[in-house]
Amino acid sequence: MSKGRYHFPDNFMWGGATAANQVEGAWNEDGKGMTIEDCLPYREVGIADFTRQFAFSSKDLEEALAAEPEANYPKRRGIDFYHHYKEDIRLFAEMGFKVFRMSISWARIFTDPRDEKPNEVGIAFYEEMFKECRKYGIEPLVTLSHYDPPLVLATEYRGWYSREVVELFMKYARVCFERFGKYVKFWLTFNEVDAMLRHPVTSGGLIEDRFPDVPFERAIYQAMHHQMIASALAVKLGHEMMPGAQIGCMMTKLCFYPYTCKPEDNLATQQRMRSVYRYVDIQVFGEYPGYLKREIEKKGFHIEMEPEDGKILREGTVDFVSFSYYMTSCMAASTEGLDMAPGNTVNGVKNPYLTSSEWGWQTDPIGLRISLVELYDRYRKPLFIVENGLGARDTVEADGTIHDPYRIEYLRDHVNAMSDAINEDGVELWGYTWWGCIDLVSESTRQMSKRYGFIYVDMDDYGNGTFERVRKDSFYYYQKLIAANGDVEAVEATLS
């Protein structure tokens, strides 16, 4: 007997996701060292110019280090999760979370990554947070590196371009596995590992003007290789130190459609999608794909590799594939005269069949189903959606309530798509964590006003507010959805 369209596995992990640099704050407390993210200022930019948020130079760094305390560096304050984590985890438990995806700040574990011994106060913070999750039966899903390289990597090593950073990262990973392995079963090595190609500062600590002797694009390829080696070494070490641990990779699942049925547009789309998969191919299959080697060769670049690197990649393949998914775009061989749509740190041709958010991101639940099928067919590994969500402006009503039907609609439609991928297409999907389950500082715009959460945080783009937490309508909807194990029809029936 069929269990219906909305059947999810009994052990399906519903939850939410955040990143340390976007929520923790306490940037200079209890021995935490500075990170690149602590040095990124808030900039008033329009939707069409959002990529300017990622522009960063040595001059910007000097200004950040000399900035007054009242200067607007949003990641320094986050949402003060560092001091509110017990309240926030209690709210996650009230929603019914089975899993909470979060990241560890490397600079909170090692004040300086060159230090011989870790910062015990930082370790104690994460231990207490994991215990709090366990108290409520919430499984932590931990990302080792999520867009916050310690500042020293940029100032002393030229970021991940330097091979020495691999050794520093492994020292950090070893401490995490040793101290937190008893609390954490699910791990990710690098967040959106492909992202260094789009914003090398936050992903790799690479500041372009510090590479006068090396073509910057070549430096990025070299840095990506070092992250591939570090990821593989971490996977192998994690399996040795934590038997039974599941260690995955995490990618930005961009999805592009051909703008027309012209063969040229289809070829352009195929080529663009290859760039989405190229580094996850290494993490899953343990070797560079031929097309990536050819791409590097055609550019005239040479990637420095150690003799043992091939063996390291083969022995450090991941257990599962996780990804972020927010939207889709179109590709055309020529974009002349076509409307462009901004998105998750990328631009694409606007799809006339889709609606767009205020920030231009085009909503496409069917694209999530397509992405799940593509990923499962390609990798034959369990999948985990670790980021999906809608950034929108919320209004607090006079009585203090927050009505966000747009977020509920987005959630409902994407859960339907997940259900179809599981039940119609045979995809093995382990879980789903809504991005920004509590309002946080947006990575792409550094705004608070671009809100994702089911929980409202009383703070504006300039750091003004009480930091009070307030449940939105979507909080109660997700609570019902988790209780119904994704049965949208049952949840909708309670609302009619």
Draw up the topology in text:
Layout: E1 13-17, H1 20-23, H2 58-66, H3 81-95, E2 99-103, H4 106-109, H5 120-135, E3 139-145, H6 151-156, H7 164-180, E4 186-190, H8 200-204, H9 216-241, E5 246-252, E6 256-258, H10 263-285, H11 290-298, H12 309-315, E7 320-324, E8 329-331, E9 340-342, E10 347-349, H13 365-379, E11 383-387, H14 405-423, E12 429-435, E13 455-457, E14 469-471, H15 473-483, H16 488-495
Parallel strand pairs: 1-2, 1-12, 2-3, 3-4, 4-5, 5-7, 6-8, 7-11, 11-12
Antiparallel strand pairs: 9-10, 13-14
Helix pairs in contact: 3-5, 7-9, 9-12, 13-14, 14-15
Describe the structure.
Belongs to the glycosyl hydrolase 1 family. Keywords: Glycosidase, Hydrolase. Pfam families: Glyco_hydro_1. This protein is α/β, with parallel strands linked by helices. It contains 16 helices and 14 strands. The chain has one domain (about 15-495): Glycosidases (TIM Barrel, Alpha-Beta Barrel), CATH 3.20.20.80. Strand 9 (about 340) and strand 10 form a beta hairpin. It is globular. The two termini are about 25 Å apart. The relative contact order is 0.14. The model has no long low-confidence stretch (mean pLDDT about 95).
